[in-house]
Each structure stands twice: as C-alpha cells, then as structure tokens.
Design a protein that fits this description.
The protein is mainly β. It has a domain of about 60 residues. The chain contains no helices and 4 strands. The structure holds zinc ion. It comes from Collybiopsis confluens.
Length: about 110
Amino acid sequence: MFLFIPLLFGCSTKVKPDGTEQPAHVCPRCNNASVFAAKSKTWFEFFFVPLVPLSSKHIWLCGICQWASPLGVGQWEPPIAYQTPQHHSFSGYNAGYQPSYAQPPNQK
Ligand SMILES: [Zn+2]
C-alpha cells in the first residue's frame, strides 16, 4: 500500500530593490517618479521553501503600477526625475546663492 503525498513545488519570483541610494526614475506608464532598479530572482520552490535559484536578472520596476523592464548595459532606461539639489554639507555655503549647475537644464 502506497501512501500518496501531494508534492507542492513550483517557481516563485522574488524582487528586491538594488541598493538604497538611487535617484528616482520616471515611470513611462503612470508617470510617477517611483521606478527603481531591482533584482528579480526566480527560485525553484518546494513546499513553499525556495531551494534552488534558477535565474536572476536586473530590472526596472515601478512601485505604483508594477511596470517592469529589463535593465542592462546599453538598454533603454527610464529618465531620472528632476530633484531639488541636495543639501550641501561643506561649511561656508551661502544658502542664498544658487549655483548654475543646480538649475534644471534647458527649460522650454
Ligand atoms: Zn508606474
């Protein structure tokens, strides 16, 4: 007499942000500056436990509409959202002075 145990296995994809210090990129679908570089890893899963990594790739992922695109050298990448200049840490910085490089380029 054999006891049949249903085997639960399959694949799952886990996505992790690629680092923390990233400029915000603009999503081409929802136009929110919520696209970040992420690492997508597909695992072979057995009883919901990830056992074997099958493949990993870098992708762009929008945190709002879940838009995703492959990320790679030479690939198209979403434009970086314009950000206000970060606080300058060096002493003697005159807060009223706006350096020219802080202006957005080519305002039309
Ligand atoms: Zn989006």
